[in-house]
Target: C4-dicarboxylate transporter
Amino acid sequence: MVDVQFWLQLAVVLVCLAVGGRFGGVGLGAAGGFGVSILVLGFGMQPGSPPVSVLLIITAVIACTSVLQGSGGLDYLVGLAEKLLRKWPRAINFVGPVVCSIFVIFVGTAYVAFAVYPVVAEVAASQKIRPERAVSASVICAGIGVMASPMSAAMAAMVGIMSAYGYTLLDILSVSVPTYFIAVLAACLSVNWRGCELEKDPEFLHRVQTGQYTELQVTHTDRITQEPTKGAKIGVLIFAIGILTSITIGSSESLRPSWEIAGKISQLPIPSLIQMVMLATALLIIVVCKVPSDKFASGSVFRSGLIGVVGVFGISWLTGTFFDTHKDVFVHYFSDIASSSPIIFCVVCFCFSSVIFSPTVSTTILMPIGLALGLSPQLLVGIWASCYGDFVIPGGAQIGCTAFDRTGTTRLGSFVFNHSYMRPGLAFVIVGTAAGWFISQMML
Model:
């Protein structure tokens, strides 16, 4: 039975989520820790177990990517992205999102695309194409690109959860990658004819008349004009080998070592495999590329990644403590609803992720809840796109890229939700959820 204490404890969880979501990052993790303190010390609840395996995978991946950034590998990749964007300027509405997506998938963080967004806006404006179309789709697709990346924190969370049910990294990628690119196409098409043409846009004409906008000169950035170092190229190669090693060994039971313990055969867990391979890859990049020690943790990837770890730690501990205690209640009241109408669970995932601002945190919290409610792992892998609603309320990428579009066509809107990114975001999530469910039936 649901009593008063249940509702008080649920209120603690929701308030902490709301407060943490407002501050994001470390604030999100701190709010989670505060909530755990109230539930345990105030209500006497038994604390749940933080997702240690997930946190260790994320830490190892962040360490490796940070070292790659220190070697100059990320700047090298961004330079390649800029060259590709300028190669097909008339198709920028499709090329922009696809190029941004590919680089995010390879590196595992949307950071790499942030340096490319200004080029997307510049190339579109130079071709008299409404920049809002390419910019909005690029930001959405790059931001959700982590669902198709073997190196992302969100994928680490998914693998850490689903490996207990026999799903390997390759199994999840076999669903998430085709789902992702189908959804990318849907997002691009949703904005391809959006709004009037640039030369008829009232805001753009106003900026031209008032001198706020001058014709852009398509020039190459420093990343393109400067020849990438040998270390940067080698770092990218070693990084790629590390990714392939994780996928190859992780997808084959015969390649993973096993041991007999107390009469039972125990095989190397996939999360442990990813952790050790990523740390080993980081060391190889450090040694071979001679990365200075002061660059290991000084880059933006390390800082943002560590903030993400704190967020996942605190909030997942809070929700885990609450749902572990009341698991029987949720299974009793909601398992039939979730099983008979999975679309309801998808809507819940989307709404929850829209206020958490972190797909990794949303995945870490919502996937175990879905499993506890009786939803199959196959279904949850398929509908994973519904956990990417962090675009609903504009965040850093949306706000920054609105400023990158000097023509004024990309807008945040006056009512919070009526911004330029809403249409491609909804198109991506709706099509991605439907396509992912269908693909998971065939691949898993």
